[in-house]
Each structure stands twice: as C-alpha cells, then as structure tokens.
Amino acid sequence: MASPRICCSALLVLLLVSSCNAGDHPACPAAWSAAVGAELFHGGVGGGGGGGEAQCSAAAPHTPVAVFAHDVDPVRFALNLEFAEAEFFLHAAFGVGLDHLAPNLTLGGPPPVGARKAGLDELTWRVCAEFAYQEIGHLRAIQRTVGGIPRPLIDLSAHNFARVMDEAVGYHLDPPFDPYANSLNFLLAVYVIPYLGINGYTGTNPLIDGYATKRLVAGLLAVESGQDAVVRGLLFERRRKTVSPYGATVAELTDRVSALRNKLGQCGVKDEGLIVPEQLGAEGKICTNILSANVDSLSYSRTPAELLRILYLTGDEHVPGGFYPEGANGRIARMFLKKPPRINHGV
Known about the structure:
This is Desiccation-related protein PCC13-62. The chain is mainly alpha-helical and 347 residues long. The protein contains twelve helices and two strands.
C-alpha cells in the first residue's frame, strides 16, 4: 500500500500538470517531472541525507510576537492593491475574477468594473496567468496573517486606463488606449499599477515588528518585485517599438507614465521609465533602466497617502476616483476619507 506521503505527492503532481490546461492554451510540457517529480517521489522534498533529517525551519525569531497590533493596518492596506492586481490579471487571462475562482477572499466586496479577457499571445498569457494565481495566494496569505478588508470597488475599465495614458502623454489618444486589445497594450497597462505595490511594501517594512508580518511582507515584496522585473524586461525588449497607432515608442510611454505617477505622488522622483538620463542610471553610468531604483539601486518607498494620490488619479488622498471610485478600504484609507473603516476583523 502506498504511503500517505507518496499519495499526497502524486496528487500534487497531478494538480500541477492539470493546472496548465487552461482555456485554449496548450498544456505545459511534462519534461519538468524528470527533476521535480523525482524529488517528490523519492524523498527529496523535506527529506534528509545520510545524516538524518535536514533542518528546514528558520531559527527562532528574536521577537516572539507574530503580529503586533500596529502591524495590522499597514499590511491590510496592501490588500487594496492586491485586489486590483488579482482582478486585472485573472480577468485578462481567464475572463473571470475572484468571484469565480476564490470568492471567499472578497469578503463581500463588489466585483470590479470593466475588467475583461485580453487578446494575449502565448508568452504574455502564461505570464499573466501565473501572476493571476500568485495574487490569489497573496490575498490569502495577508488575510490569514492580519485579517482582511472587503474588496473595494475597482475600476479596471479600458476607459480608466485610457484616461491614465491620456494624462501621461498630455492629450487624448485616438483611438482611446485599450489595455485588453493586445499583448503590448496589456504589458503597458501592467506597468501602470503593480509597481506601486513594491513602493508600498518597501515603505511598510520599517513600520512593522512582528516576525509573521515581517516574513509576510518580505515574501510579498520578493514576488511583486519579480513580477515587475518580468514586465519591465518584456517591455525593455520592445523599447524601440512604436505603439500603434500613436506614434510613441514603448520607452516613451513608460517614461510618461512614470512622470505622471511622480506628479500625482507629489514627493519627488520615485518612478523611472525604461530609459533614463545616464546620471539617473545605476551608479550614474548607464541609461538602461530595466529596474527602477534610487541612487543606491534600492527600491523607492511610498507612503499610503502617496499611493492613494496616484491610484485615485486625483493627486489627493482625500478625493477618491480613478481605480477606486469609492475609495480604498481599511482603516488607513478610510481615515483619509473621514469614513468608517470597512474591515473584517477576523485574523
């Protein structure tokens, strides 16, 4: 009779393989199983060598408190962005969102406005689909650690992204920019929102003290940074490509979007496009800017107020709009609106 461990491993393999058969996109190749499968089935995962069980857990934390009371609101604030990213990626990849794939995570919040399936090529679809599933995990991890807030009303309509691009370039694009029209437009739209999550987590980290919240934010920041690097890398590869029919290149549009975010944030340069003046590049020696970072090549930090000014597209954290027509949720965001916090207190 097979051991419970082998049975569980076999189930995991089947789930991983079956998860790749999504929509009209071809299944993942099975070659990965030669390496990963061998580890799963022959004791490589969690098993020890000849000297006994390997140490797989972190050392005891210096601070024996998992979550301090003051950790909760800053980490919950991040759920606003995570909801937006999850819905955007899920709808673009699959044509459905959290209400279909993880309704328990919405905590009763309204569905997003205007999100829909995008016309993506194979590579971009796979990137989008993977990011979509990752965002579900992020929402679950945050809610499990500090409790949740209801999903806010999020406007992911083509009209809203068109407004961002119009404001970035300084005139109305004709036809209006549509993030769901093709892979390049979608990648440019991804450039608009998720990078702000990196700014937020970088700003949140010094404010929290619990070992569980620090571990959570570190893990979130690592994956969000990886996502941003992938998107910027794909866009950099196309930096000289003219975005039809607007006559502007990919590099020019990313620079304009970054300039708009700096303007709305009102706290200096914390955002840079794919190409920068050499003095703003790494060590002041290169104009290539695949990763946006400060003079020491560290991620820029933004406060909740800065993020809301940008996400509301109003330049004012007290005036909702843009991607959050009714404002973001949680104690911090509602405090700026002088409205009661929409919070689920379960931890």
